[in-house]
Design brief:
This is ABC transporter ATP-binding protein. It is built from ten helices and 13 strands. By secondary structure, the chain is an alpha/beta fold. The two termini are 34 Å apart. The structure holds adenosine-5'-triphosphate.
């Protein structure tokens, strides 16, 4: 991929706050046009501090950021009309209705979509006449998203877009983000929901203490982690009777096996169970999830491994 296909490029970026604390300690990443990129990390890892630099809300202490080929802080006027930003807290006047709020925002947005279209996109069309203060937390997040989408942005920054949404709302938002991606919008997302990153992101980076510790596709990040098989042995069958080649950890009759070759380990376990006539209850076999990979990385980093 050539560099001009990257919509966001970040090189050795640093952000030091007044007082001297460095929240972003030299990160580099690139996001291609039409890609959904998720920035994950433990609390205080530096995600918001990073995204604010990409949005041009603050200047880096060192390093470079380019969004659509421009410095988003120094060339804000060139970048701002082409990006959409959904912050964690929208902070609207609560006495205005949903439609009034969106109309007000549309007046400040060049080439804005029709208000009704923006509200329909996020499933708020039927709430247009409701005052913002009467919206649920999830509906406010949708309104935040509608406002971020008003200017048909080429790059969309979503800071925890589904916090407070129920399962249906979360899935609706994922579908919307995917459809925006499919029409060429580039999305930079921060989230605490690892399932969200796993299902939505084309690529992701995991941050810890201001640095990127892992980056890649969701499948690539989880591929190196062991899969897990869990089950319960019947009373009277000790864990010691399991084949030695299965690396089993036992808590009473509850067994957990970690393996880098799920298919072979599972086949061996089932063969042993069939040959010995042992019934395994609650049998569950799964590849590593992003959540497990994340926890392992965060714990290892915290322990200084
Ligand atoms: N204005 C500020 N002045 C000094 N330190 C700050 C400031 N804003 C954030 N920090 C610190 O920078 C670090 C990174 O914060 P940041 O909000 O970027 O993390 P985050 O990854 O977005 O966290 P979370 O997941 O909790 O939202 C934290 O230790 C935070 O306390």
């Amino acid at each position: 991929m050539t560099t001009d296909q990257y919509v966001i490029t970040v090189d050795d970026l640093r952000r030091k706050y007044a007082g001297g604390f460095e929240a972003v300690s030299g990160i580099s990443l690139s996001v291609a046009r039409g890609e959904i990129f998720a920035l994950l990390g433990t609390n205080g890892a530096g995600k918001t501090s990073t995204v604010e630099l990409l949005e041009g809300l603050a200047a880096p202490s060192a390093g470079t950021v380019r969004v659509l080929g421009h410095d988003p802080y120094r060339e804000r006027a060139a970048v701002r009309p082409r990006i959409g930003v959904m912050l964690q807290e929208g902070g609207f006047p609560s006495d205005l209705t949903v439609a009034e709020t969106t109309r007000m925002w549309a007046r400040c947005t060049s080439g804005a979509r029709p208000v009704a279209e923006a509200l329909e996109l996020v499933g708020l069309g039927h709430r247009a006449g409701v005052r913002v203060k009467q919206l649920s937390g999830g509906e406010r997040r949708r309104l935040d998203l509608a406002l971020a989408l008003l200017g048909r942005p080429e790059v969309l920054f979503l800071d925890e877009p589904t916090t407070g949404l129920d399962a249906e709302g979360r899935h609706d938002t994922w579908d919307l983000v995917r459809s925006l991606r499919d029409t060429g919008t580039t999305v930079m997302l921060t989230t605490h929901y690892l399932e969200e990153a796993e299902t939505l992101a084309d690529r992701l980076a995991i941050m810890h203490r201001g640095r990127i510790v892992t980056t890649g596709t969701p499948a690539g990040v989880t591929a190196s982690r062991p899969a897990r098989i869990r089950f319960t042995l019947p009373d009277g069958v000790p864990a010691g009777r399991l084949p030695l080649s299965l690396q089993a950890a036992a808590q009473g009759q509850r067994i957990s096996i970690r393996t880098h070759d799920l298919q072979s380990s599972l086949a061996e376990l089932l063969r042993w169970a069939a040959e010995t006539g042992v019934r395994l209850t609650g049998l569950d076999a799964r590849s590593a999830s992003l959540e497990e990979a994340f926890l392992e990385i965060a714990q290892a980093e915290s322990a200084g491994v």
